[in-house]
Amino acid sequence: MAQPLSRVVLASGNAGKLSELQALLAPTGIELVAQRALGVSDADEPFGTFVENALVKARHASAVTGLPAIADDSGVCVPALGGAPGVRSARYAADLDGGPKDDAANNARLVRELAAHADRSAYYYCALVLVRSPDDPQPVIADGLWHGEIVAEPRGEGGFGYDPHFLVREHGLTVAQMDAEAKNRTSHRGIAMRALLAKLADARLLRAVTAA
Predict the structure, then answer these.
(1) Rounded CA gap, 145 and 151, in Å?
(2) How far are the Cα atoms of 25, 99, 134, 210 from residue 194, in angstroms, in the given order?
(3) Active site residues
(4) What is the pTM of this model?
């Protein structure tokens, strides 16, 4: 019989993702540890799909630590730009000018490239992968979508990434204007995590699932 998960390494150095995923996992009793706290460097993300990149990150973190690992690969996709930035969301501006990853530069490029387009619809996408070991033949995979649109001027002080420019129509707020609890209830990452937890519960890898 599978043993319930108790400690899992997060295969990401993104503090915003760590905070959100810790909050989403808190009701389960699973301790989520940042990979940097365990001496794990960032893995390369060479693939063209979110799922493949999440999987390589999870396997890398698990191999270094010997722990089960969870990885998130996510980004914003804009139909008018052919789905860009997509898997390159965190490196969107760096791809253009060779500079470091930078949220402000990424947002500036996105707004600039959308300026000539009437269609400003967009969606956040998240792929979550959990592996119990580096060579886990049955990784647990879930995903989530969050629809909205890109606004030219940033609004709000919260969140990270493209949140100041991502307007959630039904709320009339950008993600950066939403509080953390509201974001976790409705976001792509929240949707993906609840789907992942349901799969873990079915596999008896959770002691209990009490997350809403």
Answers:
(1) 19
(2) 9, 36, 23, 10
(3) 73
(4) 0.91
Asked if residue 21 lies in contact with residue 193, where contact means CB atoms within 8 angstroms, the answer is yes
Q: Helices 188-202 and 15-25: crossing angle, nearest 10°?
A: 50
Structure-token match 């509080």, residue found: 179
Share above pLDDT 90 across residues of the chain, in percent, rounded to a whole number: 77
pLDDT confidence tier of residue 15, bands split at 50, 70 and 90 = confident
What is the C-alpha to C-alpha distance for residues 176 and 198, in angstroms, rounded to an integer? Answer: 28
Of residues 163, 144, 141, the one with CA closest to residue 154: 163
Give the separation between CA 83 and CA 101, rounded to whole angstroms: 20
Question: Per-residue confidence at 209, pLDDT binned at 50, 70, 90?
Answer: very low
